[in-house]
Model the fold of this input.
Amino acid sequence: MKIIHWRAQIGTMMADTREESAAGTKSNSVHNGATSGSTSGGSSGTVKKLQFDLPPAQSLMQLINNPYLSDVVFKVGQAGEFIYAHKLIITTASEVFYAQFNGHFMEAKNDQKSAPAIVPDIEPGVFMEVLSYIYCKLVNLNASNMLDIYYASHKYMLQSLSKKCEDAFERLTTEDNVLKVFQENQKHRFDNVDQQCLKIIRDNPIKHFKQDHFLKLSAEALLVIASQSTINCQEDHMRQAIETWKKQNGALDVAYNIKDVLCRKLHFFGSHDFKANIDTSLLLTVKSKIALYGLGVFVGVDQEIPPAGKVEIVIMCQNKQLASKSVPIHKNLQTHEIMFEKVIIDKNCNIQVEIKKPDDLKKLKMFHIKGFMLAGTLGKANIVCKQHSTQQCYICRYNPCYCQHNCVSYLMCEATHE
Done:
């Protein structure tokens, strides 16, 4: 009976408390002539109904943006949305909040109900996530908000939240959104975020140059990408990408100086020969995945004065065209390097290289190697490369081919965990 009696009294006390809090909130619901709006935590200024005997995190979650016993109000974002908090909780979590509400700052002296703390540089949704982390150690990080939450974690010196954001960058920044993340970071200028983004961009730039977000880059962001000296593309790829950006955004003086690629070049070795037909079909077999970025292709002839015409090199992978390029014919061992969008090779992959000659050069004998082997490997990838053809070889007359002739000088590749 006593338990029932006390429960009745507690229920009456809670009802009275809610009425008093609501009345107090109503009188303070207008600050500086602006009516408080709603947040993701519910209608700002309305005391939330409390639940009891919950796990600690859930109990504290009820207090986020809840006027119940709140003694500090923030005016957040460009719209000035009001968000409620509790000094005891936020000042013990953040050194910045501790100094702000206990030191010589204006917020420590003013009545927080009539003069809220102004936070113009953080939007309400992000500020609510920061409070969620302070109150409950819970935060919803995604590709859209991780940079802004990272900024807020630095502002309020929440190092553990900063670490969570850094882990999120590693996990959530992908080839599909990296340009967007890179552009958004231009307002924050976090060097570690830039480096993470540039690592992804430099790895497969030809793909990124084709994306819509590339045309939305600011001039400053474009200049940073163009200034990279090591990147997996050639100068003509960079030049064409910049020209496309200029057509969309206007003239810009962009200098670039590509000095090297990031990937490795695995060369073939074998005996030298000149044959009339050097179309090549290679079967690459790997034990672990590799990324293929391009090929070096022989286009030399055994003549003192090479013919003036050009040949077209066409590179296919699993019957899909990766690249084509028209190149002049050179004397002896000249190699043309052709790069394309990164291709992931897993187990077996058929690479075809066709050299298309004009009609007047059909019988032209061009350089190739035979009995070839790769002069290196990529760690555990253990690349095996051999002739693979669905047609009878014109040299040895066998299918599959036994003479192993090849017009590919080297593979441009790297080990990958994708």
About this structure: Residues 20 and 201 are 57 Å apart (CA to CA). The chain has three domains: 51-172, 174-249, 264-390+401-413. The first helix runs from residue 2 to 27.
